[in-house]
């Protein structure tokens, strides 16, 4: 089968190559773990690996995967860098990052894991008291929770054609876990990734008939992936397991 074809001075992956790529990655990941178990190598792979992700992602999606990693390679130490900013992998602020934007630096390796969806959510107690919006325009009469800077939230809503004011944002936090807890406790409405919201039965979707927002989830690392066994192991496990835990 032809996997690459020449296009000028470069090579282009054929459709057959694209079709095979994901299967080959899965085979490589499985073969690596099988080899480790068979040869007793988990004891030889040790050291610290720092994973950068948002505070919400770190709290809701990473723990079950870290549990599996602990069983496979107990000598690897995991440091979760829970920040809502982009860690600089080239300066070793982290070894692996989960991001919603694709990196542009050529020294970074990125894999698209999942096209995530976002919706508006509120506690059932809040909606029972304040009513359920029927259209995006109805949000102007509701309390909204801001994640960080309220002005940025206003710009965020404006790009979807929703005109809010500072009066809509009375409570919020730059800490995503705190802001989401405010939503769950009935302080107002906020946008949230479906991947996170499914773990909170006390909230419900606001405007369920509206199309969800979409955004990509990327897994990023630096080129030491090719030389570090511990980073390769963690990266491959995250690439395999994260899509399973995302809605």
Could you characterize the architecture of this molecule?
- This protein has helices at residues 15-39, 55-60, 62-72, 124-130, 150-158, 176-184, 194-197, 229-241; strands at residues 4-7, 10-13, 47-53, 76-82, 96-99, 108-123, 144-147, 169-173, 190-193, 203-206, 213-222.
- By secondary structure, the protein is α/β, with parallel strands linked by helices.
- The strands form three sheets. Strands 3, 4, 5, 6, 9, 10 and 11 form a seven-stranded mixed beta sheet that branches. The chain has a two-stranded antiparallel sheet with strand order 1-2.
- Strand 7, helix 5 (150-158) and strand 8 form a beta-alpha-beta unit.
- Helix 1 (15-39) packs across helix 8 (229-241).
- The chain is globular.
- The two termini are 35 Å apart.
- The model is unreliable at 39-43 (pLDDT under 50).
Structure class: alpha/beta
Number of helices: 8
Q: How far do the termini sit from each other?
A: 35 Å
Determine the fraction of residues in helical runs and give it as a percent range.
25-40%
Q: What is the average of the pLDDT values?
A: 88
Number of strands: 11
- List the secondary-structure elements in sequence, H or E: EEHEHHEEEHEHEHEHEEH
Strand proportion, as a percent range, falls in 25-35%
Rg of Cα set: 21 Å
Poorly predicted sequence stretches spanning 5 or more consecutive residues: 39-43
| Biggest sheet statistics | 7 strands, mixed
**Shape estimate:** globular
Quaternary structure type: single chain
């Amino acid at each position: 089968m032809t996997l690459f074809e020449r296009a000028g001075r470069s090579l282009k992956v054929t459709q057959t190559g694209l079709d095979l790529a994901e299967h080959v990655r899965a085979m490589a990941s499985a073969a690596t773990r099988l080899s480790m178990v068979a040869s007793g190598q988990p004891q030889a792979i040790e050291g610290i690996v720092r994973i950068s992700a948002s505070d919400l992602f770190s709290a809701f999606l990473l723990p079950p995967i870290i549990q599996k990693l602990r069983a496979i390679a107990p000598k690897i130490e995991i440091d979760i860098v829970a920040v809502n900013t982009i860690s600089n992998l080239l300066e070793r602020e982290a070894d692996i990052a989960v991001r919603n934007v694709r990196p542009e630096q050529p020294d970074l390796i990125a894999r698209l894991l999942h096209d995530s969806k976002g919706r508006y959510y509120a506690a059932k107690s809040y909606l029972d008291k304040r009513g359920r919006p029927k259209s995006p325009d109805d949000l102007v009469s509701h309390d909204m929770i801001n994640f960080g800077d309220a002005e940025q939230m206003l710009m965020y809503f404006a790009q979807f054609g929703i005109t809010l004011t500072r009066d809509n944002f009375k409570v919020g936090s730059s800490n995503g876990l705190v802001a989401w807890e405010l939503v769950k406790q009935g302080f107002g409405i906020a946008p949230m990734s479906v991947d996170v919201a499914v773990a909170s039965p006390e909230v419900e979707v606001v405007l369920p008939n509206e199309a969800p927002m979409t955004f990509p989830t990327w897994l990023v690392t630096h080129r030491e992936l090719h030389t570090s066994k511990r980073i390769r192991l963690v990266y491959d496990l995250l690439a395999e397991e994260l899509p399973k835990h995302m809605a």
